[in-house]
Each structure stands twice: as structure tokens, then as C-alpha cells.
Amino acid sequence: MKLKPLCDKVVIKRVEAVESTKAGILLPGSAQEKPQVSEVVAVGPGGLIDGKEVKMTLKVGDKVITGKYTGTEVKIDGVEYTVVAQSDILAVVED
């Protein structure tokens, strides 16, 4: 199954959390922080939203930062995704 976002929506997938500290200590799942960096896996077409033209500036593969509690989480074929509005993306991570 494939997700195709509508309007100004973006589908993101959280980047896996680091499982050990810099010193090499392994962390149990409950001690790991929920990552805020995600990868864009699908982008809606944009268009007219609430009377304003919205141009999509994100593309598939971008690494982005979102708020901790932003978006709607969905699980498709065992993989967890989050659907957010482009305006809920706080920043793009550049290498």
C-alpha cells in the first residue's frame, strides 16, 4: 500500500533513535528519546488552501525537524508514518 498526501500534506518517517551513548553504553528502548528528525517519503501537490496558493518546497528524501507532537500517526504494512501539513515542518536539515 502507498500513501499519497493531498493538498499541503507531507508524509514523513522518523529517523531511528541512537541506541547507544557516545561512550558506547547501550540504551534500552524506554530510555531512548523520541527522534524529532524525520525523512520525507511523500509530498502533496499543494494548491489553493483556505483561499491562499500554497507552493510545496519540500521534496522526497529531505530530512526535516517537526514538533514532538505534530501530525497524525498511521501504520501501513508494519511501518509507522506521520502525516503533517507543510507549515508544521520547523526546519530542513542540511548536511
Your description of this structure?
This protein has 95 residues and is mainly beta. The chain has no helices and eight strands. The strands form two sheets. It has a six-stranded antiparallel beta sheet with strand order 6-7-1-2-5-8, with no helix packed on it. It is globular and about 50 Å long. The mean pLDDT is 85.
Estimated structural class: mainly beta
Helix percentage: under 10%
Average of the residue pLDDT scores? 85
What is the number of beta strands? 8
Task: Give the neighbour order of strands across the main sheet.
Answer: 6-7-1-2-5-8
Order of helices and strands: EEEEEEEE
Low-confidence parts, pLDDT < 50 over ≥5 residues? none
Sum up the overall morphology in one term: globular
How far apart are the first and last residues' alpha carbons, in Å? 31 Å
What is the radius of gyration?
Answer: 15 Å
Summarize the biggest pleated sheet.
Answer: 6 strands, antiparallel
What portion of the residues fall into strands of 2 or more residues? 35-45%
* Count of helical stretches: 0
Please tag this protein with its features.
single chain; 95 residues; mainly beta; six-stranded antiparallel beta sheet; two-stranded antiparallel ribbon; 0% helix; globular
Task: Provide a concise account of the structure shown.
The protein is mostly beta strands. It has strands at residues 9-14, 37-43, 47-49, 52-54, 63-66, 72-76, 79-85, 89-93.
